[in-house]
Specification:
This protein has 95 residues and is mostly helical. The protein has a single domain, classed as Winged helix-like DNA-binding domain superfamily/Winged helix DNA-binding domain (Arc Repressor Mutant, subunit A), CATH 1.10.10.10. 67% of the residues lie in helices and 4% in strands. It contains four helices and two strands; from the N terminus they run αααββα. A two-stranded antiparallel sheet has the order 1-2. A hairpin with an 8-residue loop joins strand 1 and strand 2. The longest helix has 27 residues. It is globular and about 50 Å long. The N and C termini lie far apart (35 Å). InterPro entries: HrcA, WH-like_DNA-bd_sf, WH_DNA-bd_sf, WHTH_HrcA_DNA-bd. This is Winged helix-turn-helix transcription repressor, HrcA DNA-binding family protein. One of its GO terms (biological process) is negative regulation of DNA-templated transcription. Keywords: DNA-binding, Repressor, Stress response, Transcription, Transcription regulation. One of its GO terms (molecular function) is DNA binding.
């Protein structure tokens, strides 16, 4: 999985946890600083769906995380975020 995939999966799961509804590319584009167009985000969402991390009920609808998507989020992405916070605290302490 590329960093782009990880970044979008994390944003989608964060958004889904917060809103409790399927998440589309426009929502990710509007609410998260991903740095990609909605069309590029849709391509990555399709990849993540093909990999089994996301599911969708309708082709044009938003996606929701699967059990595999949640597991990756918890095991990999949350830990990376916590390490980043720890590094920021250490950096700020040394300034």
């Amino acid at each position: 999985m590329t960093e782009r995939h990880k970044r979008i999966l994390k944003a989608l799961v964060d958004e889904f946890i917060q809103e409790n509804r399927p998440v589309g590319s426009k929502t990710l584009f509007d609410k998260h600083d991903i740095g990609l167009s909605p069309a590029s985000i849709r391509t990555v969402l399709k990849d993540l769906e093909d990999f089994g991390y996301l599911a969708s009920k309708h082709t044009s609808g938003g996606r929701i995380p699967t059990e595999r998507g949640y597991r990756f989020y918890v095991d990999s992405l949350v830990i990376l975020y916590e390490l980043t916070l720890k590094e920021n605290k250490e950096f700020n302490k040394n300034i």
